[in-house]
Input
Amino acid sequence: MGKLFYFMLLPSPIHQVSFRGKTLFVKRDDLIDPFVSGNKWRKLKYILQDAAEKNKNHLITFGGAYSNHLLATAAAAAKNHLKATAFVRGEMVNNPTLALCKLFGMQLQFTDRESYRNKTDLFEKHYSNDNSVYFIDEGGASKEAIIGCAEIIDELLEDFDYIFCAAGTGTTAAGLLKGINKHQLPTQLHVIPVLKGGDFIRDEIANYESDLSKLHLHLDYHFGGYAKTTPELITFIKDFTSSTGILLDPIYTGKMCYAIFNLMEKGIIEKDAKILMLHTGGLFGILGKIDQFS
Ligand SMILES: *Cc1c(COP(=O)(O)O)cnc(C)c1O
Output
């Protein structure tokens, strides 16, 4: 396990930036590692520890063709001399994320959407007689992931009024809320689902944490749905990045950061609140949308 931490920048630093007259604190989980970045490292940490304890040397996981989780798993496997195989949803394609996965030595198995739906079936079908394999669910979703994400809160040395994070499955948000409740912080957690109909995230979080009193979901910042963008979002990301030197991705962190400033403009969040924005990484998401930035 020593090796796992050796490469990682932990605890991740908090940088203070100023944008549109507002001071913002940014927890730079994007700096933990260039490839095993952000919440994907937080989620993998105890999964990899468990795999090591069980003497498994072949990670099997699942994801879409632009999955930050696949890239994180591929890089983490390579650093730790583990094999990695991914079932990739949909027909065979190539893109920058998958090319990097392959560079790190990950084997890719493109899988039609129908078979992809049942991941345990897929795993059983291909690996039932293989003792070396370790199953990692899509996005790293697991109870180990929640524990890893809660550690983000353990690293904080001062209080914030609000913590903001982006949500896809809600696992990261669940871990943050667990950490906030464990430390009995006054901090409120504001979560920005990046997909349409993100209300399910409340139920997802409730599976892991019963006290939801500090949770606020903002459902109107999906920009048309998962991985959808608008010119307004792209303009915001360009403006923020050129003004602060901190890159945002258009899938997750860009939408969350847009929400922070929009909620302040609307008066829903006070302008003088002390806000910590969790930068969950995922910067290679920019490459999938690069034509929109040029
Ligand atoms: C995967 C990802 C998320 C979403 O995390 P969940 O735990 O699934 O909610 C947020 N930000 C980035 C950059 C991601 O890659």
Strands lie at 14-19, 22-28, 58-63, 83-89, 107-111, 133-135, 162-167, 188-193, 215-217, 275-279.
